[in-house]
Write a structure and sequence with these properties.
443 residues; alpha/beta; 17% strand; disordered C terminus; binds zinc ion
């Protein structure tokens, strides 16, 4: 029947027999009744193995499918149980949906694709589902991709980073591939155990093929890498080295701000009684972004703010030049970078700005890793951009349940294997009678 073929093609009901369809007034939805084709029946929902029938389960069930125009669509079918030799009584596999979920595969795929490509509110309004449901969908679509893609194959130069994803000190440990630019692994936590999990998944053979590891040189990362990938050269990450200087500069900026406002060091408890900063102090506060930004990205107004800092607070101005000096040495790389770094260390040691004196000690402590960074010429952009993008995703993932959907979303968006749009590729395998107008590239 032609209508069967149309419905199967439109709603991803391959391997299903359409028994009928109707409009359900109460559910305000079109209901398509189906059953799996013979060779897809009586398979375990977990492993797909053919198994003897067990019972009728909880009777007929409905799955939310892709909308037809503006109308919701429900796919309805019996959901019997089978007795799998491995898994025991289990709901039978059904070709149009993932195991034990209330949406069709096409619906899941479209929701995951949208979650990666458009805003949160657009997904929720368009699909008429709760954001938390989208989180669960993203997690299972991600798990499907993980099952067929080995992300850890061929790793040579990796970057390891820790990113806070929630106030209250919740962290993700992430691993990026410097050669492909992809996010290859992420897990909750920032302790040794989190990173050990990566090396467990990698295995000793592939760990031995890792040549370079870049990180922020946190002690936990350094010790795990030394133990699990002893052949790899540990490089400081250029992004984090520049971030150290930015932090030191910010200590100075706060000092200038407090001095301008006539404040002394006060304990945290009395902080709430501080007055709104005015005049000069406010200027220092506003100059924050100008001080942080790379000079080539400054707006005219921010350039004026820096000129103002130069005239008003020479010490803060020196701190700014120190930050820029370190950024310059890092950008030079190679032997030139090392010469510039030596000059910078001389300067920083004698600068009499405590935050930068401290920073010079830190860099001397990590000298070997900083020089390895200059030699290896690992890019600054990758870890920085991954860091920024995951920070954005953590805001998008707010409302998801737990870290798993956030990790799945990050892997879908940054892992190099995006979810497919439902029906993509189906046109190539379309049934012969499919209407194919000329001029649309369909042949
Ligand atoms: Zn099974």
């Amino acid at each position: 029947m032609r209508i069967q073929r149309v419905l199967r093609a439109a709603f991803g009901l391959d391997h299903a027999v359409v028994e009928g369809f109707d409009y359900d007034e109460a559910a305000e939805a079109i209901v398509i009744s189906v059953r799996p084709v013979a060779n897809q029946r009586n398979r375990c929902g977990r492993c797909g193995r053919r198994s003897p029938a067990y019972d009728r389960g909880s009777g007929r069930r409905r799955w939310r499918g892709l909308d037809l125009g503006t109308c919701r669509v429900l796919v309805e079918a019996p959901a019997p149980r089978v007795n799998c030799p491995t898994h025991g009584p289990t709901v039978a596999a059904l070709p149009w949906a993932r195991h034990d979920v209330g949406h069709t595969r096409d619906f899941d795929d479209q929701a995951a694709w949208l979650a990666v490509h458009v805003s949160k509110s657009a997904v929720v309004e368009l699909l008429r589902v709760a954001w938390r449901t989208v989180g669960a969908i993203v997690a299972r679509v991600g798990a499907d991709i993980d099952a067929r893609v080995d992300r850890l194959e061929g790793l040579g130069r990796i970057g390891i980073d820790e990113i806070s994803y929630k106030r209250g000190h919740r962290y993700l440990t992430i691993v990026v591939d410097h050669d492909t630019g992809r996010l290859v692994w992420a897990a909750p936590g920032r302790d040794n155990a989190a990173l050990e999990g990566f090396f467990d998944a990698l295995g000793p053979e592939r760990a031995a093929r890792i040549t370079h590891v870049s990180s922020d040189m946190a002690r936990s990362i350094v010790s795990v890498v030394a133990a699990r990938a002893p052949g790899a050269l540990h490089c400081a990450d250029p992004f984090h080295v520049v971030a150290w200087a930015t932090e030191a500069l910010d200590v100075e900026r706060r000092r200038a701000w407090n001095e301008a406002a006539g404040r002394r060091r006060v304990d945290m408890a009395s902080r709430s009684r501080w007055q709104r900063s005015s005049g000069q102090a406010a200027q220092f506060k506003k100059a924050r972004y100008a001080l942080w930004k790379n000079p080539e990205n400054l707006t005219t107004h921010q350039r004026h703010q820096l000129e103002w800092v130069e005239k008003t607070d020479p010490r803060l101005w020196r701190a700014y030049l120190l930050k820029e000096g370190l950024r310059y040495a890092v950008a030079l790389k190679g032997d030139e970078g090392k010469v510039a770094l030596d000059c910078w260390l001389d300067w920083a040691r004698r600068c009499q700005i405590p935050a930068f004196v401290e920073l010079s000690h830190k860099i001397v402590d990590h000298r070997e890793a900083v020089e390895a960074m200059l030699d290896s010429r690992l890019s600054n952009g990758l870890v920085e951009s991954t860091n920024t993008k995951i920070r954005l995703l953590t805001r998008v993932a707010f409302g998801f349940h737990g870290p798993a959907p956030l990790i799945a979303l990050a892997m879908l968006a940054l892992g190099g294997h995006r979810p497919d749009l439902p029906g993509r590729g189906r046109s190539a395998a379309a049934p012969s009678g499919r209407f194919a107008p000329s001029g649309l590239g369909l042949k």
